[in-house]
Amino acid sequence: MSETVGTSKSSKASQTKPSQTKTSPTEASRANDAHANRWKALVFIALAQLMVVLDATIVNIALPSAQQDLGISDGNRQWVITAYALAFGGLLLFGGRISDLWGRKRTFVTGLIGFAGASALGGAATGEAMMLGARALQGAFGALLAPAALSLLAVMFTDAKERAKAFGIYGAIAGGGGAVGLILGGFLTEYLDWRWTFFVNIPFAVIAAVGAYFVIREPAGGRNRSPLDIPGVVLSTLGLVSLVYGFTRAESDGWGDSMTITLFVASAVLLAAFVFVESKVKAPLLPLRVITERNRGGVYLSLGLAIIAMFGLFLFLTYYLQIVKGYSPVKTGFAFLPMIAGMIIGSTQIGTRLMTRVPPRLLMAPGFLVAGLGMLLLTQMEVGSSYTTLLLPAQLLLGLGMGTAFMPAMSLATYGVEARDAGVASAMVNTSQQVGGAIGTALLNTIAASATTSYVADHIGSATSKPAAQLVQLQGMVHGYTNAIWFAVGILVTSAAIAFTFVTTGKPDMTATTAEGVDATDEVKVPVIAH
């Protein structure tokens, strides 16, 4: 059985006032423009998304050089990454709501311009304070930009086949952009200067902003003009900041640290209060209908868990290739190409072609399991492991699996949602990714460090020379990585189980029609997945 999400005006109203339900020439023209320009718009949306995802990893490679030039202490070094993560993760729901309230195109362009300005500030930084301030500003404008980009796709691509193609491209960028950042970051740091890892964002942002301004025609209607839920903004921002910072702190100071525990407790209290407030207020920041719907809830949870595994893997493979294998930053970046290729193929070919033919869970669950198989291969890593026979096939499997799973996950996270909730639904996708990334980096790094320490303590006594001691240190590092990767395998299997259990929708109803030219009092109709 299929149904259409969205309601039109009552039949009584349409009978008594037929002129109110007819599409005006202006509205029809706007709808036709939005429809005609949607593929051009996708280019600029994808470019903006690539910029945001690149920035998550590109700065990591430049960090040692930036730290030395700006005189940032080892203790404060992590804040170059943390300042961005806290602002981005903490403000995502607020950014999604602003997108619904203010208009997605306007929010998108504003986010791009702000991100470009913050990047210029970071590239021109003369000291620690200026750098940290620029990173926080990047995170804040990224929190405006990311949900606006995804919600624009959600309201512009409502035909099932076209939606599959659009989200296939978006999913490939979301999954593979981080690895591209490693390549670009290596090139810029090695051959130019660390400051270019910031300046490179400016042409991305300017081209995307100008293109979006002239090309994007947001469909009429679907705005959520309710008053802003200030208590919800405050509670969600403080709760998410506490959660992300708690995991960041756990990585550096340990899980038993008093401040770490305090942050986790504060986060639990604040987020519980947020849920309570949202269930009571008339115009909530995050309508609970967005996350309590079974399929969307399953997507957010399975995607967040998968990101935990992916972020930990990026970290371990980067260290393994550079420290254990002695790769340069550029060579390290290129070593990730098989994973990027796999993600692009999985998302734009496998996922896109099958999305309209099979239920989403039959793509998501097998996709996570294939990625888990690739991760399982990496548990066999040793100091002398061959890139060609071990790392390359493992990355291909990871990329294919993740790309195949990400594509329907990205689409389903906003599929069938009311247009007025598209921004916050999109923000929840980004929030699950951001929180998953923070957890993955902290949790898996802690597991790896503990296993490494234990291995070195047990074997260092047998080392009778300096080279032997160095070999034990390297073996200990690899032992730590493989221990943590075993946990990542388990996490991906759990993601597959959640996707298969919670995501119960069938394949998209290809006969559903979409509404064009609805006015501001109507909801945008999108074909819902058949049950």
Describe the secondary structure blueprint for this structure:
Layout (H helix, E strand, L loop, with lengths): L3 E2 L5 H6 L1 H4 L3 H12 L1 H33 L3 H4 L1 H24 L1 H20 L4 H29 L3 H33 L3 H4 L1 H15 L14 H24 L4 H23 L7 H5 L1 H31 L4 H7 L1 H19 L5 H18 L8 H26 L9 H38 L6 H37 L23 E2 L4
Antiparallel strand pairs: 1-2
What can you tell me about this protein's structure?
By secondary structure, the protein is mainly alpha-helical. It has a two-stranded antiparallel ribbon. The N and C termini lie close together (6 Å). The N terminus and C terminus are likely disordered.
Distance between the termini: 6 Å
Name the helicity range: over 70%
Overall 3D shape: globular
The ordered H/E elements are EHHHHHHHHHHHHHHHHHHHHHE
Q: What kind of oligomer do you see?
A: single chain
Poorly predicted segments? 1-25, 27-33, 510-531
- Which percent band covers the strand fraction? under 5%
| Main beta-sheet strand count, sense and barrel state | 2 strands, antiparallel
